Amino acid sequence: MPQKEALMEFLKVSSKSSPSSVAGAIAGMIKDGVPVDIQSVGAGAVNQAVKAIAISRGFLAPIGIEIVCSPSFADIDIKGETRTAIRFRVEPRYLRGTAVSSQSSDAFVGSKN
Amino acid sequence: MPQKEALMEFLKVSSKSSPSSVAGAIAGMIKDGVPVDIQSVGAGAVNQAVKAIAISRGFLAPIGIEIVCSPSFADIDIKGETRTAIRFRVEPRYLRGTAVSSQSSDAFVGSKN
Q1: CA angle B66, A97, A58 (to 5 degrees)
Q2: B50 to A67: CB separation less than 8 angstroms, yes or no
Q3: Total-model pTM
Q4: Cβ–Cβ contact A18 with B under 8 A
Q5: Counting beta carbons within 10 angstroms of the beta carbon of residue A87, is it exposed (0 to 12), middle (13 to 18) or buried (19 or more)?
Q6: How high is the ipTM of this complex?
């Protein structure tokens, strides 16, 4: 599944990432109008990513931005081994209603089943 | 934070829940027009919940429904101890643009910060 891979940059979150730091990064990008793609491998990392997204909602809500996320699977290569990563696309909820929604159909790419 | 608690039912996901079973439940409720509230406590449980949401996207995409989720925190009582749960509200992305969007403002309830 090499579609657009070269064009995409992921915010990589590990089990040791600080959720509030990641939340700050998410909020900053969203404020700048940039949708955020997060990648995490393993339950601990997924948990930190989800916490970061929840915290960033609190950063963005007061300025009227409500974000939503779409999780998907991706097979990635880590040191020669294939692992299943969870990716989260984070974007403003109202994106779909505006002219910026061009990438929306990508969101399903990488979903299992 | 007892707001609407009495009215809300959560799909409780544990670290032992089967993601595909939970995904089936999510897809069924969404097809019926019911937004889904998931509650999970602990990294393993959050991971299973996220996998379930990702899988359910694959169930719903072929019938033209794209879902998004909004994670939030909630302090809950488990056997007399206070634990922080992660809750996910799962709903169709286009909900906001329709007349059914009355519950949207609830989504922030329980967010930390």
Answers
A1: 80
A2: no
A3: 0.80
A4: no
A5: buried
A6: 0.79
